[in-house]
Amino acid sequence: MPIISENVCGIDRAVRIVIGMVIIASGILRLLGGGIWGYIIILIGIAVFLTGLLQRCGLYVLFGFNSCPDVEKPNSTSVNPDIEPYSDSEKISP
Known about the structure:
The chain is mainly α. The chain contains three helices and no strands.
């Protein structure tokens, strides 16, 4: 059971995956120039990429955002609307 439910979907997910790959690529290019900034940029890109890939974002949970459509899940305790409720006046006597 996941700790954080899916909250990144649709266009948001696609943009995160693409932007994450672009950031990772720019971090790799930065590594060629030397310094620690390339590693930092790559880590940021991996974080963005993984939030899109796994469809979960901790910051969305913190701020209460959700880009996934609301899907009504069936409830086992729900009543079938086609069936009339039982009333005391309809008791069958033996």
